[in-house]
Amino acid sequence: MNPPVESDFRRLIEAMSLCVLLHDAQTKAIVWANRAACTALGFSLEDLLPLKAQDMTRPGGKYPREVGVSAMDRSMTQGPQVYEWCYRSRDGIDMLSEAIATYVPLSERDVVMVQFRDISAEDTLKQQLRQYETRLREFMQDLSEGVAVLAPDGTVRFISDSGRRVLGGQEGEAIHTMLDYCNEEERGRFLHQLEVAPRLCPSEPQRYKITQKDGTPRWLRITARGIEIEDDLNGRLIHFRDVTEEVEVEEVRRVEARKLEYAGRYNAMGEMATAIAHELSQPLAAVRNFLEGAIRRLQQPGSVDDVIWGLRSADREAEHAALIIRSVRGYIVKREPIEARVDLRGVLADVIYFVELRAREANIRVEVDQANEPLYVICETVLIGQVILNLAFNAVDALRDSQGLRVIRLVTERESESAVVRVLDTGPGVPKGSHDRLFDGFSSSKVGGNGIGLTLCKNIVTRHGGTIAATAVVPQGLECRFSLPLS
Hints:
The structure is a single chain. Helices cover 42% and strands 24% of the residues. By secondary structure, it is of the alpha+beta class.
């Protein structure tokens, strides 16, 4: 193939989308322009030739003619020069351009070839990005949440200024790894969260107790997500915020809840004081009778065996009274909260004595129907026992003035993956439409009651991951039931 001739080169240049102007190297006058340049500037080649730089440039500002002339002059001694220039079209439209001035000695004259392209859209985009970046920096200055990109081993690749503040660091201070703030147990859990971090959405939030560099203990809430933005930002994007105040408030609420539950047990025993006193009066009276009989027999000759029998009988009755006192004290004594895996049937068995005691003095029959299989749950035994007692005592109070059948049924059973306790009575029930509100507080079926005991039941059951509800019994009565997840 023969090399292109001059006309071919001219066609190639005319076909270029890049704008080209040729200036005389000495006078800087335009001596030629390609079709792209003429179209962009809105001039024909004949119109362009007599024009000077100021005729095609935004007047004033940072684009005086001297800037373009200086770039052309430097290209003659220093090689191609890249500079920013703003051309103005025949219609008065400004076109911000990136220009390259290149000195080219031709056979007839020396010229400076200026190639330029419109970068107005790019410049607008850059300005918008700069504005967004400035705004983002301003917004993040006031954030209470930290943002960081970590390697899977916890090494910090990026951290925001707000993140440094959350960790107790100074602005610009280098933070190499998040693990420095955690103890051994928390480190393992944190690394596991980073390892399993999903790509499409943040992980479930986790709480960690950390220690800042000055020794201050704090609590952080952290979510993590895998990202691939650039080579140096691949890793785990985490958001973390200081939730120390939330944790402290929750702890105060837990303490208050414990106090309320403890007070609830005392209140239950207070309501049972008459029945307990009656229950104790029988063995104490028997002890007195046996002792008086033994004293009388001591005054008679040959009555040693009768005296021994009377003293042993008195001892048995005293032990019975002591057992009652221990049962009451064991229920109301303040205990530390301990969760354990227990059979829910055993929890009911532990409190049935108190239910029967309360029901007996009101002449109410108690029926117990236990499940045929173990119902293992994870719970605080004392609290779940209190829920059963509260529901049963509520049923006893509902039956006190009932003229019909006076029966309370306590049932344990399994439903799917839950263990269920049902307390059913044959009392008057509650007004239609109020069953759903029974456990929400200040709603009670008792005369003079305020429903706080039922609200306490809901709080305890909910904290154990269970549910509680009330329904009507046909033909008459109320059923209160709660369920706990089987272990």
